[in-house]
Amino acid sequence: MADERSPAGRPEEEGPSPEEQVKRIIEAAQKLGVEVDEADAAQWLAAMAGSQVSPGDFEVDAKEGIFGHRVTLLDFDPQVLERYRAIAEIVEIPDRPGIRTALSLSGSAAQSKVQLFPGDADFFERVHIVAPTREEACRLLGEAMRDKALSCIKGDNYELVEVKWGTFQQDVVRRGERLGAGTPISWDASEVKSGAFEVYSAEGDVLIIDWAYGIQDPGWCKLDWVVAEREAGRVVHASNMLDATWETPEGEIIPLDGFLDPYFQEVYLDAESIPLFTKLIKHVSPNALQDYVSALEKQVAKYGFYDPKNYGKVAKRLYNIFRLTGRWPEAVFVRELFDEPAALLYQVAALIDTLDEAMTSGQSLEADTLIEQIDSLIRTVVRVAEGPTEEQIVDALLRLRDDLSGRRSLGEQRREVVEASYRHVGELVNRFFEERLLVMPEIVNYLETLKH
Predict the structure, then answer these.
(1) Which of 116, 239, 269, 328 reaches 20 to 30 Å from 101, CA-CA?
(2) HSE of 28 in the Cβ direction (CA atoms, 13 Å)?
């Protein structure tokens, strides 16, 4: 008879107790001077003990009106709901005739008990369309996306940055760059407003790409904004990734991009969308969990074994792998790394990128909020970095501050300053997570298996 196996693919066996696991985690952390919240770690391990993660394992928090995969809800802090629901009013595509939606938080935003310093506000929305034909479904999707973009193109505290809609059906040249057939089409705010832009064919002929062009193949659908949270003195990048599905007259559910996304990292914000959610997840592949983990493992290999390495992204993906595959001690150890002051640098990198977006296209955002954001970043860098790298990052941020305040314009040098500061912060983040991840033998062994 075949062995019963855990979600991680390992034979089930009597393992160490939660107390023994916490002790081992603390010993590994102490080697690095990493503080472990023993009570929190034991509580999380106890909640996960004996669990078998499965694709259909979701729960509802009736008090907060949210729902999601049980493992995901364990990592979500409802205290941040007010903040994210305010941003959701900007990014959400609402229901309309022929379209029903379900909006969720995703990425770091859905792990607020773990990711204490998220740099972005990532949303994920299921957009379900009932239509007689695929072409009509794509038309309704494009119409809903453009209406949302135009209605929220600019506000008192936000500005649209980019929309992904459609796929190039042939090789083109755009803004001097060659783009192959199948490349997702990016629209900036002015292009969304005009509804068309020019590119060149491979032969040099002018081609007009209008909004209706995207109906042929919607591809990767996403909307991005820069949002100023004035009371908090910060700017954030807010995105809404869409998973569009078409319901045929026969009741068949067809993903418009060819793939129905699983839901292992999403916290849905409105319990009223449960009927739509449960209807769609019935069509998620039975192999969804394993496929999701395999995709994350490929990303770990990409960021961990090939230059430029990014161990911050490795750590985030490892945490998701470990918590979904029954590797609880490894998951708890990685959780603790995100609680360290130096992990703030991951947020710094994201916010530098957002600042660049805001300074480039966020003309409606107040300079005072952006300056306050830079001041906060400088304080963070001074607190957690040291040596020449700290000086380089602080110098770059001060130059960006002078540019915003009008004291000294950077002109064409601004892009160079932003890229340099982003690169320096990235190096610190990479070093911090690499040194700590590789101190735990179980994580080292796991990474070795991915090399092969």
Answers:
(1) 116
(2) 23
Per-residue pLDDT, 16 = 66
Give the confidence band of 52 by pLDDT, cuts at 50, 70, 90: low
139 φ, ψ to 5°? -65, -45
Task: For residue 337, report the phi and psi dihedrals to the nearest 5 degrees.
Answer: -65, -35
Give the HSE-up count for residue 297: Cα atoms under 13 Å, Cβ half-sphere.
18
One-letter amino acid at 131 equals A
Under DSSP, is residue 22 helix (H, G, I), strand (E, B) or coil? helix
Nearest Cα residue to 298 out of 317, 316, 311, 279: 317
Q: Are 369 and 401 in contact (CB under 8 A)?
A: no
The CA distance from 375 to 390, in Å, is: 14
Over residues 294-337, the pLDDT tens digits come to 999 999 999 999 988 999 999 999 999 999 888 888 898 898 88
Distance CA 384, CA 436 (A): 16
Asked if the model's pLDDT at residue 405 lies above 60, the reply is: yes
Residues linked to residue 239 through DSSP beta bridges, in sequence order: 122, 224
Q: Which of 299, 298, 322, 314 is nearest to 437 (CA)?
A: 314
CA distance 143 to 192: 11
Preceding amide of 308 cis, omega within 30: yes
221 φ/ψ sector (left φ>0, alpha ψ -120 to 50, else beta):
beta
Most distant CA pair in the chain: distance in Å? 75
**β-pair type (222-229, 158-167):** antiparallel
Beta bridge partners of 154: 159
Q: Is the separation of the CB atoms in 325 and 53 below 8 Å? A: yes
Neighbouring C-alpha atoms within 13 Å toward the C-beta of 440:
28
First to last CA, the chain: 28
Tell me the per-residue pLDDT of 146-178, one tens digit each, with 9 for 90 and over. 999 999 999 989 999 999 999 999 999 999 999
Architecture of domain 58-168+211-281: 2-Layer Sandwich (3.30)
Report domain extents, the chain: 15-50+287-452, 58-168+211-281
Determine the Cα–Cα distance for residues 370 and 358; give it in Å rounded to an integer: 8
Interior CA angle at 74 toward 73 and 80, to 5°?
A: 65
The per-residue b/e assignment along 125-135, b for 16 or more CB within 10 angstroms, e otherwise, is bbbbbbbeeee
Burial of 284 (C-beta count, 10 Å sphere; 0-12/13-18/19+): middle
| Amino acid occupying residue 18 | P
